[in-house]
């Protein structure tokens, strides 16, 4: 887990999957242990997300949500990325 110490403990942290549609947040940390193993992913999910640009301090926006718990369309800067809700739960954010 990578978590910078510069964020105050009084801020409210939520997973990216819980961020409402149209809202933006700042990435605080990525947690491997929150990932559901039932999809058959290997343990490198956090590394893959970081390679895609999900880095602490970056701003993300939930553009769209799929119906009935479907995938999320997330923007990091001008890049659109589609994530499963189980993948989005790995990413801890604070709402802006």
Characterise this structure.
The protein has 96 residues and is mainly β. It has one domain: SH3 type barrels, CATH 2.30.30. It is 11% helix and 33% strand. It contains 2 helices and 6 strands; from the N terminus they run E-E-H-E-E-E-H-E. A 6-stranded antiparallel sheet has the order 1-6-2-3-4-5. The longest helix has 7 residues. The chain starts with 12 loop residues before the first strand and ends with a strand. The model has no long low-confidence stretch (mean pLDDT 83).
Annotation keywords:
six-stranded antiparallel β-sheet, 6 strands, single chain, 2 helices, mainly beta, 96 residues
Question: How would you summarize this macromolecular structure in one to three sentences?
Answer:
With 96 residues, the protein is mainly beta. It has helices at residues 45-51, 85-88; strands spanning 13-15, 24-30, 59-65, 72-76, 79-83, 91-95. The protein contains 2 helices and 6 strands; from the N terminus they run ββαβββαβ.
Helix content: 10-25%
CATH superfamily: Ferrous iron transport protein A (FeoA)
Give the percentage of residues in beta strands. 25-35%
Rg over CA atoms: 13 Å
Number of helices: 2
CATH class: Mainly Beta
Q: Could you give the order of the helices and strands?
A: EEHEEEHE
Structural class of the helices, strands and pairings?
A: mainly beta
Q: In CATH terms, what is the fold-level topology?
A: SH3 type barrels
Measured distance between first and last alpha carbons: 22 Å
Strand order of the largest sheet: 1-6-2-3-4-5
Number of domains: 1
Low-confidence sequence ranges: none
- β-strand number: 6
**How is the quaternary structure best described?**
single chain
CATH architecture: Roll
Shape: globular
Overall pLDDT level: 83
Give the biggest beta sheet: 6 strands, antiparallel
């Amino acid at each position: 887990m990578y978590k910078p110490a510069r964020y105050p403990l009084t801020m409210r942290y939520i997973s990216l999957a819980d961020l409402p549609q149209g809202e933006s947040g700042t990435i605080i940390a990525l947690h491997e242990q929150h990932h559901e193993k039932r999809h058959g992913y290997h343990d490198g999910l956090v590394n893959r997300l970081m390679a895609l640009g999900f880095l602490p301090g970056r701003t993300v926006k939930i553009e769209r949500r799929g119906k009935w718990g479907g995938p999320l369309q997330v923007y990091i800067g001008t890049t659109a990325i589609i994530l499963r809700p189980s993948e989005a739960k790995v990413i801890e954010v604070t709402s802006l």
